[in-house]
Write a structure and sequence with these properties.
mainly alpha; 5 helices; about 120 residues
Length: about 120
């Protein structure tokens, strides 16, 4: 589409006045082609940024999980002779997920007819 738009703009330059007489400006095509090209570049850039952010997140998550495994080993070694503290740690280290209720989508109420409105 971009190549076709550019070719159209270049080929219609000698006939620009005729196109304008019919209410169609080749400059509008050129502007639309440029806008499309900019949008494609922005979209590609956004995808690249998202990809990089996901890779960075995964890398940081893996590092954090490594630290957590090491910390778990330290806690297990430190609290091995204290079953009460170990039981408290087991409860405290667990993260409970809170169930999120989905919002109910209410269907629109049927419109009242004029006869129903007058009768009421």
């Amino acid at each position: 589409m971009i190549d076709g738009g550019r070719a159209f703009g270049a080929d219609t330059e000698p006939l620009k006045k005729d196109f304008i007489k019919h209410g169609f400006s080749p400059d509008e095509v050129s502007a639309a082609v440029e806008a499309l090209e900019r949008a494609i570049l922005d979209y590609t850039g956004g995808k690249a940024k998202r990809s990089a952010a996901i890779r960075e997140f995964d890398k940081n998550l893996e590092a954090a999980m490594g630290y957590m495994r090491r910390f778990e080993a330290l806690v297990a070694n430190s609290l091995a002779d204290n079953p009460a503290a170990m039981a408290e740690w087991t409860v405290a280290r667990r993260i409970n997920r809170i169930a999120v209720r989905r919002r109910e989508i209410k269907s629109p109420e049927p419109a009242q007819t004029v006869a129903q409105t007058v009768a009421a």
